[in-house]
Design brief:
By secondary structure, the chain is an alpha+beta fold. It is 28% helix and 26% strand. It folds into two domains: 1-152 and 270-362, P-loop containing nucleotide triphosphate hydrolases (Rossmann fold, 3-Layer(aba) Sandwich), CATH 3.40.50; 157-268, no CATH class. It contains eleven helices and 17 strands. The strands form four sheets. It has a six-stranded antiparallel sheet. The protein is globular.
């Protein structure tokens, strides 16, 4: 089934001129699994969500500067692409914007609007450099759309090195939400253990399915500073706590992912985005992860290179990303088109055989 009926979830995205995505008009459902070759544009698609979040935090020009200027954001630069346009629809409501590069290497709004199917477009203004969406429209549309976008979380747990933030001490009160790189994981789990014990217990039990040696977390304020907490854990049957750096990379990533999908529903973002969640995971852990994704109550967008993960989903959940002549194209699979193939092959096998697309091409 394509499309989501929840007004708090993104039902359609129109994106033109963003990095490798020259043009895209895509219906989104509750589950959205992106597959494609390296460099096809999966990360660019997910990166767009990061840009919108920065935009709504009124950090657009900082984002543009850190990306290397407008020419690094626009499809093949301003000589090829004169503007970046996006339309985000949440059922009957929408948020629309067009951005153009300036001579001083900024992006300027030449259109910023809210949309409602009963009254059409309500323009916020033109010629500004940071969003006017937070100032309100008086139409109530923004009250539906803006809080939803602000809740998006693009999670990325690739860094599990000794210097990774998730392994460092952090503020014990930094627990309003799990941060995108899980740098506040200990503080967040500390909150769950004390306030949401059922969710906390589910997280611990799920981790044990993949890491049977894991006993529990050891969550406590630092003895040296009660305002600080650090991720510690017990091995099953032992009472000596270990630091996070004694967890394998795959185990630590799985702990982060389990926390994302099993956190209490009222703390979950309406749309959860994860880039290549399978990195470093055992195939059995990938199976458990897929179960967590499928049973999530919120909208999920993940990109993957994993055949094992792909095999856990239905064709209608899958979006194939191809890159042809420098352009990324995104299309959702149709189960009916694959019925004959699926009698003998799994989705992963069809991907390997290049029946689905999403493979390297010249």
């Amino acid at each position: 089934m394509t499309g989501t009926n929840d007004d708090k979830q993104l039902s359609r995205i129109v994106l033109k001129g963003f990095k490798s995505i020259a043009s895209c008009d895509l219906q989104l459902s509750r589950l959205n699994v992106l597959i494609g070759a390296n460099g096809a544009g999966k990360s660019n698609f997910i990166g767009f969500f990061r840009m919108v979040q920065q935009l709504l935090e009124q950090n657009l020009q900082v984002y543009v500067s850190r990306q290397g200027g407008p020419d690094a954001i626009l499809y093949f630069g301003r000589k090829t692409t004169e503007q970046l346009e996006f339309q985000l629809y949440f059922g009957n409501n929408g948020y629309l914007a067009t951005l153009e590069p300036t001579q001083d290497n900024r992006l300027m709004f030449t259109r910023e609007s809210f949309w409602w199917n009963m009254s059409g477009e309500h323009e916020m203004g033109r010629g500004h450099f940071e969003t006017l969406a937070l100032s309100g429209t008086g139409t109530q549309i923004d009250r539906y759309v803006i809080p939803t976008i602000q809740q998006w979380r693009v999670y990325h747990f690739h860094d599990t090195s000794d210097s990774a933030y998730v392994k460092q001490p952090h503020g014990i009160n930094d627990n309003a939400y799990l941060r995108p790189d899980a740098r506040n994981l200990a503080a967040f789990l500390y909150l769950l253990r004390d306030t949401y014990p059922l969710s906390y217990t589910k997280i611990v039990k799920t981790i044990r399915l993949v890491a049977p040696f894991f006993g529990d977390f050891h969550l406590r304020p630092s003895p040296q500073n009660k305002e600080v907490i650090e991720l510690e854990w017990f091995e099953r049957g032992l009472d000596v706590p270990f630091k996070a750096h004694l967890l394998s990379d795959g185990t630590l990533r799985f702990i982060c992912l389990t926390t994302v999908f099993l956190q209490p529903e009222d703390l979950q973002p309406e749309t959860i985005l994860v880039d290549e969640p399978e990195l470093g995971l055992h195939p059995y852990a990938i199976t458990i992860l897929a179960s967590l994704v499928r049973t999530a109550k919120k909208q999920v967008i993940v990109s993957t290179q994993s055949i094992e993960l792909l095999n856990e989903f239905e064709p209608n959940d899958v979006i194939v990303v191809d890159r042809e002549q420098g352009k990324s194209s995104l299309r959702r699979l149709d189960k009916h088109d694959l019925e004959v193939w699926l009698q003998d092959y799994s989705l992963g096998e069809l991907w390997k055989k290049n029946v689905l697309g999403g493979r390297p091409s010249r």
